[in-house]
Amino acid sequence: MENVGKPIRCRAAVCRKAGEPLRIEEVVVAPPEPREVRIKIICSSLCGSDVTRWRMSDQSAIFPRIFGHEAAGVVESLGENINEVKEGDTVIPTFISDCRECEDCLSEKSNHCSKFPHKTSPWMPRYETSRFTDSEGEPLYHFLNVSSFSEYTVVDVAHITKIDPFVPPNKACLLSCGISTGFGAAWKTAKVEKGSTVAIFGLGAIGLSVAQGARFCGAARIIGVDMNPAKFEMGKKFGVTDFINPKDCANSKPVCEVIKEMTNGGADYCFECVGSASVVCEAYASCRKAWGKVIVLGVDLKSNVSISALEILWSGKTLTSSIFGSLKAKTDIPILLQWYMNKELNLDDYVTHEVGFEDINKAFDLLRDGTSLRCVIWMDKNHAHCHI
To answer: The whole model's pTM is what?
Structure first.
């Protein structure tokens, strides 16, 4: 209570320049403004989006910045005009807003908030200002409305979901982004039907979450496509029934032809989880005519998708995207966590590594090397399992 309404000095992992190791620095976290919440972060998991933006050095790169957006924490203090949460509540911050006020958030058809539309802004969404300064008083920039690589952070209440405090934080944090995105894409976006066939391009954490969501919905066959054959064994834990390595198809048939043969005409649902325009086209070609659906989850920042207009007209296929798995954070995250507590949803097998905050750069190395699905970073080393 002694810090309520006052700045807090704490540690944060600051990125000063694209691609450079993060530095543990003392930073100042301002008190929350109206409709904002200051959170004490318990742990974060490292997502591929953090690594992608950390690498970027073009005009869209903004530094110095505090990354991190998959997290679990406890409300330390509140700004004015908040009744959704109180001090001491356990919460998950999310990059996507659920304001519960705009037409989109009030509709069952959309999770694309109109009041706070998704963007990679360096500021707080409501006021376009930062809550972080460094030891010299210079501003530090936010990332994806969360910035969880700090012992304390400030998040708009529209980006906060209250959760059951009995859920282990190192599992709860996974639902801030990637796992929710993949599972929701099968469950909410595609609405995968019982007995259907599914093809997933890319078996990282998001692709494996699609597989788990498809299995949950009753898919009969789930085909994983990945260049790493080791992903098949991991994929089996989440529901993958068949595996295709594109390297094995290079001198014979293209992947789309292999999938068409396996599924008697194409998969009912194809999910692109790589972030490649060419893979979107491959997924489209692999999908069944007339009722096939292609759902794009990966982000290709540099290319356009090129599909013949005639093919679009005659194929009858649906091409769409999935942001945060079409989930409404405040409604659907508690449902997913209840399924986890009921042992209907597997979160445990995504956590392949755990480290203390001082070793946060090891988490980046593990994800870049492809040896980690999710590495959990504990802010308090006394609670960290610190195994690699």
So the answer is: 0.95
Q: Which residues pair with 86 in a beta bridge?
A: none
Instruction: Answer whether 242's CB lies under 8 Å from 262's CB.
Output: yes
Q: Where are the alpha helices (DSSP H) in the chain?
A: 48-55, 103-106, 169-172, 178-184, 205-217, 230-238, 246-249, 255-263, 277-286, 309-315, 329-341, 360-368
pLDDT in tens, 121-178: 999 999 999 999 999 999 999 999 999 999 999 999 999 999 999 999 999 999 999 9
Residue 248 token pair: 């094995």
- Alpha-carbon Rg of the chain, whole angstroms? 21
Contact 232, 344 (CB under 8 A): no
Distance CA 168, CA 229 (A): 31
Residues 253 and 99: their CA atoms lie apart, in Å, by 48
Q: Are residues 23 and 14 in contact, defined by beta-carbon separation less than 8 angstroms?
A: yes
